[in-house]
Amino acid sequence: MWVYSDMHSSVIEHFEQAEFVDQPFRPGKALKEIVFKKWEYMTQPMAIIHLLAILPTYRPIRLFRIFLIFRLFKLLRYTNSLKQFTNVLTEKRFELFTLGIFISFVIFAATAAIYIFEVDAKKTQIHTLYDDFYWSVVTLSTVGYGDITPQTSQGRAVAMMLIVVGIGVIAFFTSIIVSAFTEKLPEINKQRVFNELEHHPQHSILCGYGRLGQNVAEHLKNDNERVMMIDNNDDQIALAKQRGFLALRGDAESNELLESLNIKQAKRILCLTDNDVSNVYITLSSRQLNPDIEIIAKANSAQNKIKLTRAGANHAIAPYETAGLIAAQYAGQPVAFEAFFGLLTDDDPITVDAMRLHEGSDLIGQQSGAIDFDAHKLILFGVATETEHNIDSLDSLHNSDISQASYQMEKAHFHFNPVSSFPLLKNDVLIVFGHKYSIAKFRENHGLFKNR
Amino acid sequence: MTIEANTKAEHSQKQSIVIFGGGQQGMAIAKWFGERSDEVLIVTTNPIEKNEVEQEGFNATVMEYCLDENLQAIGIGQWVNTIFCMFSEDAQNVFVTLSARALAPNLRILCIADTNGSGQKLMAAGATKVIDPYEITGNRISELIRRPLMVETLEHTILSKANLDLSEIKFESESSIRGKCLNEINLDRYNLILLGIVDQEMSEKLMFNTAGLDHQLDVNDYLVVIGPFEDIQLFREEMNL
Questions:
Q1: Cα(B8)–Cα(B163) distance, integer angstroms
Q2: Starting at the edge strand that comes first in sequence, how are the strands of the sheet with A268-271 ordered?
Q3: Residue from A73, A44, A341 nearest B151 by CA
Q4: d(CA A36, CA A42)
Q5: Which one, of B60, B62, B103, lies nearest residue B81 by Cα?
Q6: What is the ipTM metric for this complex?
Q7: Which residue from A278, B81, B100, B162 lies 20 to 30 Å from A392 (Cα-Cα)?
Q8: Contact A136, A111 (CB under 8 A)
């Protein structure tokens, strides 16, 4: 049980968090989390089966022995494979049928021949046709127990022929099974992937496992997102599989493939191929198949960004343009940029976060100056509002010599460093800099929860 | 007509920023400089590309970058202070970096790395900073998934041409706020946010403003501020920075 989760890491994390926000450390909360994690493990079906299976080792209660059967339930996880195995065999039924007829004929002939030669011989071990039949099968299968052996020269000749034929039959039988599986293997794999995606929806589909795709996939993996790769290049797919991803060779432009990948229940699709025509096409078909999916598309040429957005992408990104812009800005302010991009990476505890004021937060209706960001060790970067009406109300509220900076975004307005009388409304978004613990504390104190 | 005569005739002004490569990245950089585009020269190997660049209104020249004389002719080692190596081939970028570094030890060289592992080669060749477009975009996409609103905000403010800049202010000895602590600096009069401070003697990492730290400002520290350009200028002037 202790392998499943570490108790001490929970305690340490809670303690650090409490210390950072100057609150007394309350062990109860950490304890609750630990107990919850353990309980979560204990109630898994597999864990219960394990427990029942080891109970019989407690000798005094012999009744528990019946639970030994539970060990067999562990085999349940193989039922799917069994089904696939029979499927493969039925695919090859013609070959197997032919082989079966051939075997019956050989066995029939051998049984008859050996009966004729051996039944009257001295020291014979064969008395009935059934003995003959048994001997033929044992010999043909190359098992050859040796409990019954032919005594006459004619009988031995039959045995030798039967052995040679037997080797051929075994080889033929093995090759049928093997070839059936090699033919079916890609399909089995595909089916497995499809099944998995069907049972666990909310996955991400990533088209194009090129350099950008690889990079994004690693990030998604670190965030524990389930990612499905599609690429039409075998090498890239092999690479993806080697790195432990679900991957499939195929053409992402085909609706059939996207549907098999359960796109209707997918969380997002990333179109990152090196071809803008493909990206636009995939974007368009994904949007049709699932109107709610989040689509992120790569524009290899910056001018195609607008086309991707028009085709239905939520976000279009032009890597080369972005890199150029960053180079230009870096040139002017190397130290500031290095520091700022440090904040945006994950390993830095100081970070930027956006918090939406959902219904129920006590910040709605307040003025931005009334919130004590200093006490939370946070810096307010700005407020994003959905409508412009905040600005209108501002003019009447405030006449300051500080110019207010407001920036137009796609669906919102951003107010940089708002004045202290800036009114906060529902669905406004606060963007703050701060330590991740401070941000968590701030969310908790003001009823700002993620994803509500 | 020699190359030297060619460049002289076309560009009487001496550009301090040179961009090698007129592709997407090169153009993105050139456009970013906007009003200062007179200071930018784009070097390309392709006459057609040169025409395209000129149609966009930028200075451009076609030249053989393999020859040191040509690099010197456009001012590397003299009046150029920053070059961007934005050729699509890594080998070209490495070559330019290496030649330019030999001519000008203090030049700021920014490169783009296209394939895995070329970043190290470019650094070895003497680049100041290597930018991997795939890594940057990969980060951007994963952030977009995690915190879409934040990325959008940053993209429309700091990372765009909007009048909201991220700026570093180097601390010189004669400023009026020397020896003060970080939390003693009063920014109320400016529409600015002081994000923190970078003390290069300690590390390249940002010391965050509110982390309750009482770092005394010292020569060669950098203040990292965000704000509209005019406010940053005003702050600089009034603080003698």
A1: 35
A2: A246-249, A227-231, A204-207, A268-271, A294-298, A315-317
A3: A341
A4: 10
A5: B103
A6: 0.79
A7: B162
A8: yes
**Contact A409/B156, CB-based, under 8 Å?**
yes
Q: Are the CB atoms for A298 and A317 separated by under 8 Å? A: yes
Crossing angle of helices A153-199/A79-91, nearest 10°? 120
Q: Is B158 on the interface with A (CB under 8 A)?
A: yes
On average, the pLDDT of chain A sits at: 82
Distance from CA of B137 to the nearest CA of A (A): 6
Q: What is the pLDDT of residues A166-187, one digit of tens each?
A: 999 999 999 998 998 888 888 8
In B37-96, the residues whose Cβ lies within 8 Å of chain A are 82, 84, 86
Burial of A245 (0-12, 13-18, 19+ CB in 10 A): buried
Interface of A with B in 372-431 (CB under 8 A): 374, 377-379, 381-382, 384, 402-405, 407-410, 412, 414, 416-417, 429, 431
Q: For A301-359, how does the pLDDT look when each residue is reduced to its tens digit (9 = 90+)?
A: 888 888 998 888 888 888 888 888 888 888 777 877 777 777 776 667 778 888 888 77
* Secondary structure (H, E, C), chain B: CCHHHHHHHHCCCCCCEEEECCCHHHHHHHHHHHHHHHHEEEEECCHHHHHHHHHCCCEEEECCCCCHHHHHHCCCCCCCCEEEECCCCHHHHHHHHHHHHHHCCCCEEEEECCCCCHHHHHHHHCCCEEECHHHHHHHHHHHHHHCHHHHHHHHHCCCCCCCCEEEEEECCCCCCCCCCEHHHCCCCCCCCEEEEEEECCCCCCCEECCCCCCCECCCCEEEEEEECHHHHHHHHHHCCC
